[in-house]
Give the backbone structure.
Amino acid sequence: MARFEKVPDIVIGRLPVYLRALTRLASEGQEITSSQQLGKMLGVSSAQIRKDLSYFGEFGKQGMGYNIAHLQEQLSAILKVDREWEVVVVGAGPLAEALIREDPFAGKGFRIVALFDSRPERIGQRLAGMEILDSAQLPEVVRQRGLKVAILAVPAAEAQQVADTLVAAGIKAILSYASTTLSVPPEVRLQYNDAAAQLQRMAYYLQ
Amino acid sequence: MARFEKVPDIVIGRLPVYLRALTRLASEGQEITSSQQLGKMLGVSSAQIRKDLSYFGEFGKQGMGYNIAHLQEQLSAILKVDREWEVVVVGAGPLAEALIREDPFAGKGFRIVALFDSRPERIGQRLAGMEILDSAQLPEVVRQRGLKVAILAVPAAEAQQVADTLVAAGIKAILSYASTTLSVPPEVRLQYNDAAAQLQRMAYYLQ
DNA sequence: CTATGTGAACAACTTCACAGCC
DNA sequence: GGCTGTGAAGTTGTTCACATAG
């Protein structure tokens, strides 16, 4: 398939899922897989997996399937997570602590390198071994280190203002845990991590 | 629109987003809104909002717009979050602590009522004021209290086994923070809260 | 005159089905 | 024989545009 046409965002959204499944298979010692096996693991059709991959190239061998390590490399490169993006976290609360301690980004292309809070009593303290910096320094640090990715873990009331500061400082991707709708310019990517919304979506089907 | 036809899941997924926006408007003291205002806040078209709502009934007044409090009530009822679902959390780590302390479900239809771990040294301890129970008791507690909703916050290696136990005990909705693909029967709803995947999705557009 | 609710038109996405290669 | 890659067909989701109600 032409490698130049625009790839639907919905396809991009599935690549991390494929990558996770491949990691699992690799950890089990498997070397080769097929669109059918992946499809079964993930509950999607094998045709969808083949079609999704075809937006980016030809990664399989007909009659054989996909080399897992190779496909992992390719997908990592496509998603640009074949490197380590430095991430800033704003809001030194329990959630930031969980992210730093459990490090769910390890080996997935991201590393938390700076932690900010605006509450005077928190500034200078440590959280899970990481120093809490003054939010007043945020624009300077983001600019100097050229940070592009931020995680927002502040109360809803402050979220928009912090998002504005991040954007002004050059941040291009924000993952927000704040339970409020934010507004950012179109060149900045924004994702909400909203556990309450996920539960509400499932509640519809209960009973 | 016929209130009987099947509603696409993608529409259900947007209702919590609408609800969150309405909560924000209500907190700002507004009483009436329009599909256009909501659309602007959320970055979707006004037609989509009207169409989505039309699956469930007629909630607005032509020429006037929507009464915010009324629409909140209606959407809450549709999503079945006009009550409080009791939630069990499995895995007493930093993430469970963050969920209990920050309580992102407050006022959204869910309340954490039980916390389990399988590590002997953690059992009997307290986490953010909540007693850590022995995972061995999990099936019994889930059945006795008739719990339907679970949050999975255990290491990837244990996640599938815990999910199986939850399902066997009668859980119908699982929100998993484990970074691994799970398999559950079709009558059980499953959502992944995968921050790494969300960052990876945005990384594609960086640079 | 404003803003909803909704068929009809359109666009996006998914699945089918098969040629081509291993 | 098995499995990929992909146009074509089919399905689902979104936007248009307007009749209708306040």
User: Anything to note?
Assistant: Chain B has two domains: 9-78, 85-198.
